[in-house]
Design goal:
Blueprint: E1 10-14, E2 18-22, E3 28-33, E4 36-39, E5 44-47, H1 51-68, E6 75-80, E7 83-87, E8 90-91, E9 94-101, H2 104-110, E10 117-127, E11 136-137, H3 139-144, H4 150-173, E12 176-187, E13 193-196, E14 204-208, H5 218-221, H6 227-238
Antiparallel strand pairs: 1-2, 2-3, 3-7, 4-5, 6-7, 8-12, 9-10, 9-12, 10-11, 12-13, 12-14
The structure holds uridine-5'-diphosphate.
Uridine-5'-diphosphate is lined by residues 95, 97, 103-106, 134, 180-182, 203-205, 217.
Length: 247
């Protein structure tokens, strides 16, 4: 891709898989996607070669799709293989999980088998606090902890469900079953809530729609092998996907 690299002003934040830099325009930030992989609240660490490139481009693809569907996001443009330009937001300290199918912590918590389709999509909130292991919180608890106002929590919930309405059929057309995913939201300069963070196989569970093969970070979490190959497979189905011309 064309190199549109912008010289970062200074580092603002270094996370487990991404860094955020100040851009010369103070309303914007540069987000850099690395290959580092962590799981279980940072207890398991590793590297997935080229993951940063794939997640940067996949996130850009999903953010563009969501913008077209009327969901406001922090995405501005792709700068290079590993960096995107985004709006500078104050992150709301909630992880917003949308689920279509039982998996992961929901399976553990409720004893339901992984793979059971939920009667309707559900939204869960966890409070972003590594020291507490990102505890599950109710909407009322999120409000009482000061994460967001009642109106903001309700807006976030509606936006998260809308994201699912857009991504789920989009993935399925590409033979990927969208099991669940995690979103983060932020407040832009004008106070408006917009979708932030990333959308990638690090933050979504994708299963092959026909075979049920896991094509996401569970391959790393659960030592299933072919981790890089799974990320490339998702990229091939979504990134390079060219719909057949209408006849
Ligand atoms: N997830 C994430 N970051 C987290 C926790 C979860 O991106 O810190 C994503 C995860 O990839 C999955 C969804 O959120 O797509 C639901 O995860 P779950 O609560 O089942 O937790 P897990 O089993 O991954 O611990």
């Amino acid at each position: 891709m064309a190199d549109k690299t912008i010289q970062p002003v200074k580092i603002l934040y270094s996370g487990k898989a991404k860094q955020v830099y100040a851009a010369p325009d103070k309303d914007l930030v540069i987000i850099h996607y690395r290959d580092d992989a962590t799981a279980f609240n940072g207890e398991k660490r590793g590297r997935i070669e080229d993951k940063g490139i794939i997640n940067n481009k996949l996130s850009a693809r999903f953010f563009r799709l969501l913008e077209e569907a009327g969901v406001p996001t922090h995405f501005v443009s792709l700068l290079n293989d590993r960096q995107m330009l985004c709006k500078n937001v104050a992150i709301i300290p909630l992880e917003v999980i949308v689920r279509n199918v039982v998996a992961g912590s929901l399976a553990k918590r409720t004893g339901q088998a992984e793979g059971v389709e939920l009667p309707e999509p559900m939204v869960e909130l966890t409070y972003k606090d590594d020291a507490q292991g990102d505890p599950l919180v109710t909407e009322e608890e999120a409000v009482s902890m000061g994460a967001a106002s009642k109106e903001e929590v309700e807006r976030i919930r509606q936006m998260a469900l809308r994201v699912n309405e857009v991504l789920r059929p989009f993935a399925l057309e590409r033979k990927l079953r969208l099991i669940d995913f995690k979103l983060e939201f932020g407040r832009a300069g004008d106070g408006k809530i917009i979708l932030a963070d990333e959308i990638s196989p690090d933050t979504c569970r994708f299963w092959d729609a026909e075979t049920g093969e896991k094509l996401d970070k569970d391959r790393f979490r659960r030592d299933l092998g072919n981790v890089k190959e799974a990320y490339i497979e998702v990229w091939n189905r979504i990134g390079d996907y060219q719909p057949a011309p209408a006849v």
